[in-house]
TrEMBL record:
Annotated compartments: Mitochondrion
Protein source organism: Xenopus tropicalis (Western clawed frog)
Signal peptide start and end residues: none
InterPro entries: mtLSU_mL37, Ribosomal_mL37/mL65
Family from the record: Belongs to the mitochondrion-specific ribosomal protein mL37 family.
Protein name: Large ribosomal subunit protein mL37
Pfam families, per the entry: PDCD9 (PF07147)
Gene Ontology biological process terms, A to Z: translation
This protein's GO CC annotations: mitochondrion; ribonucleoprotein complex; ribosome
Keywords, in A-Z order: Mitochondrion, Ribonucleoprotein, Ribosomal protein, Transit peptide
Length: 417
């Protein structure tokens, strides 16, 4: 007999269930089929002066008696399967003053404004003139680059496999790796590019004091392009001194530490992820991806804030290694680039670290140049989108913008031209 033909009855709680036993409806919950799910039994409360009566002596469960609380069995040796961390107060690295931690999953509510305040940075719109000169100079252009970029986009978005339209989690990493491979093939034309190293999942640790709080950047840094020689500063000495007059925007009523993880067990250390003697110790470009196609993905402003934090962390860790922990205004600024993408739109950023004195609002500030929301293509579809017999979006790669790749290539080539 079909489930719809079984007579139903409404109970006092408003739950519909079947009268006939043995009928299963897998598409609805158990409560609708009249199955009783016992609630989770709560632990007996502790009352001072009273000892609970348990079923420990009987060695089996007895309804109405409290559950015994047995002591942990000491095996005499450390078993990692049953390891239990001690309370935070008993850990070696526990500190009373909390630190606010930024990692790759943090999405700053304040966006770029919050990242600028945390890093004491002045924002300049557009890329530096040195990089724009590389974009416009035909000597540095890749021959037939439009067709090559078109093939990279098609390989990531269309040629992955036959079937449905690919999701961002699939084509975003493949597109970035394809563009990097296209740039790496120019090593024979520009020999200085061979003095680079592309590292994946490079770990980063950086710590600094901002006013009366401690902030840290820790975790995996994504793709990191490192070089044998550091990038030369973009801003001149007069431009650096002119940042003293710049005033940072206030985040009121937001807290500067909003959306950062508060921890009491931490260590203040600075590590760029390179061991001593590594031939490519200088960070060049940090590549940041947002391959999430759900609502958990980053907003464009949050992705740009993440780029600022990771670029600042890489520059700060390198500066601590070169100039020590007590350095204030750097004698030689540190320059780190960053490129972020969600698989279609690109954000370009150049960060120059001028000072390590972030306690006060006065003095020299860091500088960042940003060029955001640059589309590489407008659409890439396996099947055309047709509505009322009118093709709204054709199949294939449409709206390719080679100017975006020129900026990508100019930032990759920067320092080797």
């Amino acid at each position: 007999m079909a489930a719809s033909m079984v007579p139903r009855r409404m109970c006092g709680a408003g739950v519909i269930f079947h009268l006939k036993c043995g009928v299963r409806c897998l598409s609805v919950s158990a409560a609708r089929n009249g199955k009783f799910i016992p609630p989770v039994r709560a632990e007996a409360p502790e009352i001072p002066g009273l000892e609970p009566i348990t079923y420990a002596d009987r060695m089996y469960y007895v309804p109405g008696l409290a559950r015994p609380r047995n002591t942990d069995w000491d095996r005499g040796w450390s078993d990692p399967r049953y390891y239990r961390a001690p309370p935070p107060e008993q850990m070696k690295l526990f500190r009373e003053q909390p630190a606010y931690l930024f990692h790759r999953s943090c999405r700053l509510l304040g966006g770029v404004k919050q990242a600028l305040w945390l890093t004491k940075t002045k924002l300049n719109n557009g890329l530096p003139q040195r990089i724009m000169d590389i974009c416009e100079d035909p000597v540095y252009q890749i021959p037939n680059h439009e067709e090559l970029v078109h093939n990279v986009v098609a390989n990531a978005c269309l040629w992955h496999r036959p079937g449905d339209q690919p999701i961002r989690e699939e084509y975003c990493p493949k597109l970035l790796q394809g563009l990097l491979h296209l740039c790496q093939k120019q090593n024979n034309k520009f020999p200085a590019l061979s003095q680079r190293s592309l590292v994946e999942n490079c770990r980063l640790a950086a710590s600094w004091h901002r006013e009366s709080s401690i902030y840290q950047v820790r975790g995996i840094n994504g793709f990191l392009l490192s070089s044998k020689n550091p990038l030369k500063p973009v801003a001149s000495e007069s431009e650096i001194q002119a940042t003293k007059e710049h005033r940072l925007e206030s985040l009121y009523p937001l807290s500067p530490a909003i959306d950062l993880q508060e921890v009491n067990v931490y260590e203040e250390r600075n590590d760029a992820g390179f061991r001593p003697g590594y031939p490519f110790p200088h960070p060049h470009t940090v590549f940041v991806m947002d391959p999430c196609s759900t609502r958990a993905g980053f907003l464009p402003d949050q992705l740009r804030a993440k780029m600022i934090m990771l670029a600042y962390g890489s520059a700060l860790a390198k500066a601590r290694n070169l100039f020590g922990e007590d350095a204030k205004v750097l004698p030689e600024p540190i320059l780190v680039q960053s490129i972020g993408t969600d698989g279609q739109h690109f954000h370009f950023l150049v960060f120059q670290l001028n000072t390590l004195d972030l306690v006060s609002e006065d003095g020299v500030k860091n500088i960042v140049w940003m060029d955001s929301d640059q589309s590489l293509y407008s659409s890439a579809r396996l099947v055309a989108k047709v509505k009322r017999k009118i093709v709204e979006v054709p199949a294939g790669v449409c709206g390719l913008q080679p100017e975006t790749f020129k900026k990508f290539w100019a930032m990759y080539l920067h320092g080797a031209n």
